[in-house]
Each structure stands twice: as C-alpha cells, then as structure tokens.
Write a structure and sequence with these properties.
mainly alpha, elongated, ribosome biogenesis, single chain
Length: 167
Amino acid sequence: IIASTCFSKITKVQVAALNFFLCNNLNKDNDKDSDSDDDEKLTKKDILLGHRVGKKTSKRKKQTERALKALEKQKKKKKVEIFDYSALHLLYDAQDFAERLFRQLESSNERFEVKLLHQDFLSRLIGLHQLLLLNFYPYLQRYLQPHQRQVTKILLYVAQASHELVP
C-alpha cells in the first residue's frame, strides 16, 4: 500500500512516500542527537580540565575516572538503536516497481528536487536488489554536466545504482 503512494498524482504524497522509503526522516532526529552529543563532549572537557588544574592526587584521579564512567553510562542510556533494515528490502517485485517508477520519472514535469528524490530512490533500489534498469544510466548521464545543479548528488546516484550485473 505504501509503495502505491509513490505513484500518486499529488506531489506531497509522493515526496512523503519517497522520504519514508529513503529513511530521510531519521536524519532529522540524528541531527538533534548530535547537538546533545556536543554538550556532553563539553562536560567531558570540563571534567578533564578540572583534573588538569590543581594538585594531582590519586583521590582526584579516581573521582575523574568515576565522573567519566558516569558520563559514558548516560551516553549509552540516551543512545537509541536505529535498525539499518529499511522498507526497501520488503518491496514486492522490485524490478516491476522500479520500471514503473522510472517511467513516471521520465514523463514527469515535477520540480528538480522531486526528480532528485526519485533518482535517489531508484538508485538505492537498483543497487540494493541488483536490478537491471538499463535506461536509468543514460537518463542520469543527461544530468552530468558541469553547470548542472547538484551534480555531485547525481554522481552519487550513479555510484549507488552500480553493481556487478550492470554491463
């Protein structure tokens, strides 16, 4: 059902479905976590700085080690496991799905960002399932011009879609 939303005529629905399959919503959560990691690193710096200043005694050394261990425990508690098993693995008949999505991409007149999202999804799908979608590579080659916006992303998509079975 979610796979069928990729073919919706409503652009916002398409983008939401593609973001779901690409796990783009997880990246926003990770950015928030990285900000809190910076704060924890600062407290670790403060702990080590406190040990650096003053007389070095075994008691202070043990206190510093205990504080660092407590900080590491807090980090482990806050860390949430993210599974690397995406919804792309669970698609039924990935070859047919990729062909239909590529036909939609070729005939679409959406904004460039939406086309990039389609290309990203297709390249990951092709690379993951080792699909043969031979018209995809010449399609991407059209966008590999020096003046093209986001040309490095398009190069990334070509690399993602490459596998052993591609001639």
